[in-house]
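step=encode ok
step=design start
structure_in=
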């Protein structure tokens, strides 16, 4: 079975090529998806990659949620299709209502670009089954609006339902609860600020820890879960 992972390109997207390359490294077929086309081209999963969609005007991700392709992503996610939002993609998923909360300016108002350690809090999602719960992985982070915030009742629900997927070991942006990534209630939609697609080969990244997210997806889809 050939797994097809769609990777969206918006105006201002800059990590789509890396996300597609990581999909191929894991053994999947990477399928380019254009923001203006309401067509997912028969893919099995979708990645909303990082960058500065539409120049991050208004708020990061606020315009991208209206793109024709996102209407299809929202509908497909409602049917259980796995979706991963990375950095700006995480912001887009929150703006689109697929994940709760919001990403705001980092504490200190500085852009953060560094390799950071994440702790895996939930290894039962469609994108994290290859990791051990409690494992620490080294992934690059590069964002100016990566501070996760949500209302107290939303945070309590995320914590109570085990929907916090990753936490910062060293919280560099002030995210509430040290939250670096969260999941939908069914564990099919995951968003995180750090960039797993930049940690797929030890030679070029700080580690190959990010590849585990892609392998997890393949396991999920091949198992028909």
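sequence_out=
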């Amino acid at each position: 079975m050939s797994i097809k992972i769609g990777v969206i390109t918006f105006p201002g997207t800059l990590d789509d090529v890396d996300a597609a390359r990581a999909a191929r490294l894991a053994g999947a077929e990477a399928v380019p998806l254009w923001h203006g086309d309401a067509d997912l081209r028969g893919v099995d999963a979708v990645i909303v990659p990082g960058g500065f969609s539409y120049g991050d005007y208004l708020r990061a991700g606020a315009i991208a949620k209206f793109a024709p392709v996102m209407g299809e992503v929202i509908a497909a996610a409602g049917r259980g299709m796995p979706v991963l939002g990375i950095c700006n993609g995480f912001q887009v998923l929150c703006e689109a209502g697929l994940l709760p909360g919001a990403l705001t300016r980092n504490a200190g108002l500085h852009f953060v670009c560094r390799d950071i350690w994440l702790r895996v809090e939930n290894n039962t999602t469609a994108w994290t089954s290859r990791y051990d719960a409690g494992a620490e992985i080294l992934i690059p982070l590069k964002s100016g609006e990566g501070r996760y915030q949500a209302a107290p009742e939303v945070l309590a629900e995320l914590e109570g339902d085990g929907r916090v997927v990753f936490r910062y070991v060293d919280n560099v942006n002030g995210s509430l609860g040290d939250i670096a990534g969260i999941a939908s209630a069914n564990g099919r939609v995951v968003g995180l600020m750090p960039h797993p697609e930049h940690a797929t080969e030890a030679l070029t990244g700080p580690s190959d820890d990010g590849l585990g997210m892609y392998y997890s997806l393949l396991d999920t889809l091949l198992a028909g879960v």
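step=design ok
step=annotate ok -> The CA atoms of residues 115 and 140 lie 4 Å apart.
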